[in-house]
Structures
1.
Amino acid sequence: MQLTGSEILMECLLREGVDVMFGYPGGAILPTYDAMTKYPQIHHVLVRHEQGASHMADGYARATGRVGVAIATSGPGATNLVTGMATAMMDSSPIVCITGQVPRAAIGSDAFQETDVTGVSLPVTKHNFLVMDVDELAWTVREAFHIARSGRPGPVLIDIPKDVQIAITEFVYPEGEIVLPGYQPRTTANEDELDAAGRLINEAERPIILAGHGILMSGATDELLHLVERSGVPVALTLLGKGALPENHPLSLGMMGMHGTATSNHSIQEADLLIALGMRFDDRVTGNLATYSQHSRKIHVDIDPSEINKNVPVDVGIAGDLRTVITQLLPRIERQQRVDWLARIRDWQEDDDERDILHHDTGDRLLGAQVINDLWLHTGGDAITVTDVGQHQMLEAQYYPHQRPSTLITSGGLGTMGFGFPAAIGAKFGLPHEEVWAIVGDGGFQMTMCELATAVQEKTNVNIAILNNAFLGMVRQWQEFFYEERYHATPMFNPDFCLFADAYGVPNMRVTRREQVEESVAFARSVQGPVLIEYVIEKEDIVYPMVPAGADLHAMIRRPKPGERESA
Amino acid sequence: MSDETGMEQKVTLVTLVDNRPGVLNRIASLFRRRNFNIDSLTVGRTHRQHVSRMTIVVDARLANVNIIAANLRKLVNVIEVRVVSDEPHVSRDLALIKVRTDDPESRNMVTEICERYPGRIVDMGVKVAIVEVTAHEEQVEAMIEEFRPIGIVEMVRTGVVAMGRGIRIQDTQYEPPQMRAGTRDNGVQQNIL
Ligand SMILES: Cc1ncc(C[n+]2csc(CCOP(=O)(O)OP(=O)(O)O)c2C)c(N)n1
């Protein structure tokens, strides 16, 4: 069959199972946009800014575990994808970005809308390709999807010159095995590693599991649950690991790190064994490395060998797939109760409870924590929540316990403001039957709120919860703690978000009192298509506990107990 | 340079990589991004058309070699990585050194130095000579030090290349995926901009 490069691209996308892609047209990608008309099986979502396309592809990928696809033109279209690729890179999310490039003969001549996109994207992609021959296109697309979704997943970019999109060649889909000798992720552990890990776990008195994104990505939640129940080891979660273990499980200690539970952080500091599963000891979870869990032995299992011994030296490092390795490990694990250790943990948990703002009398102020708690309550704790970055993100992590894997989607590693709303749109495309909430701050929402038009055009049934504190809240918190309350460049002039929604014909509601939160959920559920709810919350609120950047993990700034004076 | 600090712990990595445009850039970008310092890096072809070989020397005090190797292995175009300095190996550096030879004394000295090292004069002019030396890096450095007082006017070194001794063979059967022959398009260009 004689096909153009663009048609070959579409044929290959179909065979990869792509049913939707998010993009924006332009000169250098037009042949492919034209070819799309022959492939109605792949739905194209027209975004309002290419950054939105990259986050939608990412949200889709995280919600489904399948590869998300974004497409853009050369030059400015491609550079607008960069933040999305960097975000996906840091959080190991499988996306494929397709960009048009100027014709081969013009490459290197500073042609109109020419950018060296493979150069620009090199450090923020897992791999990238510039396709210089139409006969290499089909293989390239196969390799790109394979690389994006296997091993430690990540973003892959395919840059296709315009004349390669136009070129005609005989198309036969390459069925053969993908040969990438430099790319063979290791998945299983060897006996010595397993014996060593098993022995450490059985002998430990104060062990703790640190469960991360890797558990979710490898589909190891059942295996983790077995490991936890057999070994009796409590679990702290990373932000991206939320959902790895049902958070109502008695052995779940909640999130660890900068805004994690004090219980998790104290347990890590006093542990005699850390079992790190699919996490990477980011500075936001370790605090000061010199004082991090000083008295513990450490086991680290991760699919990426370069993570082992990177930040924290470990006693047993296993490069492998979490699901496989935990399955291999299970027969070596003895059943234990660990009564004393759990009693010690219970004390910390009681202290946490006493300090919890929800147990304090806060008058009739509406607090972010209350909004998130009530959203959790009235959505039955079962929604897909997609957050932006800031205080509301940390409040979601603290007050929206997740029972199912991959039901929280958030930008952890890069902390990309503007991620939440478009990622929620992408997630909804991937999971049309789930209830999807974008939980965003007034600052971050304004970075990508142009995508409201996309949601309206596509009738995407996504619920937008804006927690409006009229501040760049998280930055204001740092200014309050560390810059003597000089609130420079953090107070926000905001539009009337409800009028803004009106302008797009989007149903909306403003919530100023706690009793209205329940009603707002009912209202959101009654609307087909996007709906916007603005929660006008306390302006100068603080997310506790907080480990100041670089401080010791146990040196948290705590919320005072009732009757106690503020201490920092 | 090792003769200045005497403390360096040089480690030599040999990697086989796809012989494709941009691969050197990927490796350089990795070293820059991860803040690994390169002492020397050489690239060249192998007996296989699709495979190039790089020898990378780093100072082990400044970076964990295992982490460097693991990061190199993550690059899709890197086929194999080995720390050859952990095993018996041969390593060679090549230098071209242009030295002053504008009086009989300097000419004699240059000739005499070349007799004591695996170096030879490859170009002799009235004012300057070019000496070529291929040897272990430390020997090359020692020779350079001897030339310094005479007057080095220009110099280039290739950087170290290395190979494991005996049957420690570092090779790959790698062939890139079969592109269908005969249909290579010849760059159609119709009102494309
Ligand atoms: C693109 C980007 N720019 C800047 C920041 C730094 N930053 C982190 S949190 C934050 C404030 C977020 O404010 P808002 O969206 O209103 O959410 P809130 O913290 O009030 O919940 C800022 C500016 C960032 N994470 N991302």
2.
Amino acid sequence: MSQRPLHLSSQEKAVLAGAADSAQKLAMGIVVRMGKILGASDLVRIASAHIDGCLYHGDGGVEFAQRLVELGGRVSVPTTLNVGALDLLNPGRIRSSAHRRRMALRQMKAYQDLGCQPTWTCAPYQSGHRPAVGEHVAWGESNAVAFANSVLGARTNRYGDFMDICCALVGRAPRTGLHLEDKRRATVVVDTTALSKELREQDVFFPVLGTWLGRAVGNRIPVVIGLPETVTEDQLKAMGAAAASSGAVGLFHVEGVTPEAPDLETALGGAVPETILIPRPGELREVRDALSTTDSGPIHAVAVGSPHFSLEEFRKLEVLLPTAPFAVPFYVCTGRSQYRRIEEEGRLSRFESVGVRIVVDTCVVVTPILPSQGGVLLTNSGKFAHYTPATTGYGVVFGSLEDCVRSAVEARVTRDESLWS
Amino acid sequence: MELKGIPLYRGWGEGRLLVLGEPLSFWGGVDPETGGIADPRHPRHGERLGGRILVMGHTIGSSSSSAIMLELLRNGTAPAGVVIGRPDAILVLGVLVARELGYPAIPFLRVEEEDVKRLREVDGQPSTVSGSRLRVGIL
């Protein structure tokens, strides 16, 4: 094993060799170092960035962002921001210590000072940030990466916190991995036709298939066949988010649906697949069960909107809302652009009248919002189901949006099991 | 046992091996204050990373794991070194940023995936990462 040399343009070399300390120089140093680690031949120009590094995990992340501001940093491409640790529209909702809130706010402000747009959403693709097919970008946040690559056909690796902002500052990323045409071909075929057609058409199927996919393929690239042509963007979003939580899936193809998979042969780049995987109904059921830590009894909260709720998901929820208030808190996490739209259309009161709490700019697994006494949370998100036990201490039950509404009315787990039996 | 690899971040560290059979997302899976594995569904739940030479096949899950690595280094709860079976763009980044901020850094060594499997046999043994080498056992 040896490391390849990395070719830099004269302009890139000049930034790296800059006499004075600057954010550009620091960022270029990190981009180049990571490029070498990843075996990149050179750097690729990026069209945009999405930054996951604005969420507070500790004071180190704040110090880094502030260092970049002190060094005069300014992003050189359009850049959106992922969730922070505060709901800036409802700051009282967060049960953090004063220190944590102060630091989280400083961190969010520092990223704005670097010229990033205060979108505060894990679904920037729902807020107008939609790179074109084949466009190189540098995105962080695992669900957003999976969506950008798979659904939009843009090209990004899974950029971690810090790397995302460094790429945005210099407008470059290492030309490696998913930036390369031949590294985007599927090597694994996932044939879903052994599962009932009825199941494959339901929203609740997609987070489960995504969780199964992440476990089965790890970081290989799958092409999924047998999904209905009616598959929606929200369904693909839910599948990608779950696959990126249970595995390291940064790109998946869906035959006849996603831009790089008009047909199976194209998705495979004309090559023979390494493996063909055929998920069986029993396996899917097991994965669905494993998303929950319990399957019955009382629940204490419901949370939906991971990734952030879309306007279409709001519409679906609105239709399902009961007339009497929910018996437990019902959290909907979303971006501020969706929230404003709901507000403008005068629909907020309909949600609020039954006790829906709309969480903006953040979500319930990244910062303390859920009631402190703990209990069991019901969710329709594979990603929330994956992370809830470790990040909130709550037990979790996975169900459909309809299950979430029914259970929130009755304050106990009430799920339609018919699809899974 | 002695293995050679590519130092992704060159340095020296020693500690007992902690070889993860299952992949781990640092974000949501590791508590940056204690350095403990916090994911109750992970088979090594409750073990502390601090002072260990952490061996893993590859990383999964959140791209925020680099931030958790930075906080572990800042808080003094980080492993003494990391040995990984695939090139990794996420965890090692936490080490590069730590160096920029003047926190202590740790060695990061990439080995073959087969080597990671062999290391499972010697989990818990004392070990040293130095430059491009990992030595296991008391020397």
